[in-house]
Design brief:
heterodimer; A: mainly alpha; ABC transporter involved in vitamin B12 uptake, BtuC; 11 helices; B: 310 residues; alpha/beta; six-stranded mixed β-sheet; 12 helices; 39% helix; globular
């Protein structure tokens, strides 16, 4: 029992990070029907930004309370990553809008390669690491054993929950969110109602990147080590999560993220750690055979 | 008598929209050929003509969907400008000139969202293009995005629970509910727009266009697919928009019961060219219009044939 609960906590922690990245994929797909392959690398970039800001803060003002330092890191990482993503959309995707469908996709793959190589060049190919930022946790006795709720796990799950709530509020209850949903359904009509579609799309990229940056900061806190190629696997996993949940659906992305995280952790815990990715992708394949539009996705029904 | 040069002579209403020498070519096809007409302020103007006459193309040029091959489309939000002002603007690279009394907008130079947001022209389509996945109320809120987003602190102030955000949202809901009341859909505010019956969707679409606060509303076949009772309701609704909101209307319509009953002014197109322009009584009795709609009388065809045989 204690082992199971411990794995559940670990799975939810990992799933939160996937979910946060998955939202960026699903939102961009929803609004312009494109898979932003560079999103995983934007996430990787955000970990580097977070790391650099953290090191800067601790060397400039040593002994700053860890909570305050993390908040500053979070804000800086969100802002800078959002700026990057905005620039990527502006340079690589917007000029191709209205071109054939594959053009922005290929451009996205190009941006992904660019980001990986750029970071490798300026940061070097070796792992960058931090001393553990947050140690310790609560130990809760359950049955015959204990489960450990590390402080950083609590931080990750809480931050994810709070940010998702804020994000849900923006999309559902504000004018910007309504404009985004309108653009999702009929971009031309939205534009005829006076909505600046280009700006709305830019803001979607900005919001997706900001959430990826949150995932990046949490990743830094959890693992404390990053390398230029670390965007690929989490990116693919988050993309899988978005597809599993039903691409285009926001709650779907979160649920998909949590599921992928749980599957991975439980498979590693009870079966074989080597095959955890195989397990996650197999479950994706099986789900898509029986539910082609994912768990919460709406099927594309064409009315005739 | 001292009438300033920009004023229209008594009895004739000043124009809100002036289309001059509008031409639209697609490759070798001339869809609209040197078309000029005025839409008078506060009038309901109808654009009619057989299928393929170029009516929707004219709409697409006015609302920024197409860039006309040639011609000028000037919209005046305020008073009609003095003659020199419009030409000065046309000769400058600017797209519009705003002043205290509204402004002049050269629609052929502007993009579609700009035309709605700045020049205040709204339109609907032949087919219904509601956001079916959003609620009825949300559809009307989306149309108010322009001022609402600004007034609500670009939406992000909402996260801080700011009062300005809540006030702006509440005001937008008020406006939306007033429109729902006018189209009799107040009770269905929270239903998905796609779940409404066809006739209700048509009226909701017009209400949504009105929520952008237009000075000119362009309706492309608003009565298409409506039964006679619904058409009569539509007539009433359109007349109330004209009188209650002071919005001028330009509509494309095939349903003559709508056109003849509510229009102040009719423009008839055939093969992209204007063949008639006047009041409903004038149009009804114009032989060129009758010929375009009903074809030429048989005896006239006989006459033409005998001419040829000679």
């Amino acid at each position: 029992m204690d082992y199971f609960l411990q794995q559940l906590v670990n799975g939810l922690t990992l799933g939160s990070v996937y979910g946060l990245i998955a939202i960026g994929y699903t939102m961009v797909y929803g609004i312009i029907g494109m898979i932003n392959f560079a999103h995983g690398d934007v996430f990787m970039l955000s970990v580097f930004i977070a790391l650099i800001v953290f090191v800067l803060i601790s060397s400039l003002v040593g002994g700053l309370a860890i909570a305050l330092a993390l908040i500053i890191v979070l804000v800086c990482a969100m802002a800078l990553t959002a700026l990057w993503s905005w620039a990527i959309e502006r340079v690589a995707y917007r000029p191709l809008r209205g071109s054939f469908r594959l053009a922005p996709l290929i451009s996205a793959i190009g941006m992904s390669i660019f980001l990986v190589n750029f970071v490798q060049l300026v940061q070097g190919p070796r792992n960058k690491s931090l001393p553990p930022i947050m140690d310790g946790g609560f130990v809760i006795p359950v049955g015959s054993g204990n489960i450990t709720l590390a402080y950083k796990q609590i931080l990750i799950i809480l931050t994810t929950a709070v940010l998702l709530a804020a994000f849900w509020f923006v999309v559902q209850k504000t004018s910007l969110g309504r404009a985004q949903r309108a653009c999702e359904q009929d971009r031309k009509m939205a534009s005829l109602l006076g909505i600046d579609v280009d700006r709305t799309i830019s803001l979607t990229f900005v919001m997706g990147a900001a959430l990826a940056a949150v995932a990046g900061v949490l990743f830094m806190v959890q693992y404390g080590v990053v390398n230029f190629s670390d965007g690929f696997v989490p990116g693919i996993k988050a993309f899988t999560a978005a597809v599993l949940g039903g691409i285009g659906s926001l709650p779907g992305a979160v649920i998909g993220g949590l599921l992928i995280g749980l599957i991975e952790v439980f498979w590693s815990a009870y079966f074989s750690i080597d095959y955890k990715d195989v397990a996650a992708f197999s479950i994706l394949a099986v789900t898509l055979i029986f539910m082609p539009s994912g768990l919460l996705g709406k099927p594309d029904v064409e009315k005739v | 008598m001292s009438v300033s040069s920009g004023d229209a002579p008594a009895g004739v209403k000043p124009p809100i929209l002036q289309v001059e020498h509008l031409t639209m070519r697609f490759g070798g096809l001339v869809a609209v050929n040197d078309l000029s007409f005025d839409v008078a302020r506060g009038d309901i103007t109808a654009l009619i003509g057989p299928n393929g006459a170029g009516k929707t193309t004219v709409f697409n040029c006015i609302t920024g969907f197409y860039k006309p091959t040639a011609g000028r489309i000037a919209l005046y939000r305020g008073a009609t400008p003095k003659p020199g002002t419009l030409d000065a603007l046309t000769n400058s690279p600017r797209r519009f000139a705003t002043g205290d009394d509204g402004g002049i907008f050269l629609l052929e130079r502007m993009g579609d969202s700009e035309i709605t947001a700045r020049a205040k022209v709204a339109r609907t389509f032949q087919n219904i293009r509601l956001f079916t996945g959003m609620t009825v109320l949300e559809n009307l809120m989306v149309a108010q995005h322009n001022w609402l987003n600004r007034a609500s602190g670009y939406s992000f102030l909402g996260l801080a629970g700011a009062k300005s955000f809540r006030d702006a949202e509440a005001q937008a809901v008020d406006i939306a509910v007033q429109w729902l009341d006018r189209i009799g859909l107040k009770g269905r505010a929270d239903d998905p727009a796609g779940a409404l019956p066809y006739g209700d969707q048509r009226r909701l679409e017009i209400a949504r266009a009105m929520c952008t606060g237009p000075v000119l509303l362009c309706l492309d076949e608003p009565a298409a697919g409506l039964n006679p009772r619904e058409s009569a309701e539509l007539n009433e609704f359109l007349m109330s928009i004209r009188s209650g909101n002071g919005t001028s209307l330009l509509l494309i319509e095939h349903d003559m019961s709508v056109v003849m009953e509510i229009s102040d002014h009719i423009v008839v197109l055939e093969y992209g060219t204007k063949i008639s322009d006047g009041t409903p009584q004038f149009i009804q009795n114009d032989p060129k219009v009758i010929a375009a709609y009903l074809g030429v009388e048989d005896d006239e065809v006989d006459e033409a044939e005998t001419e040829l045989e000679k």
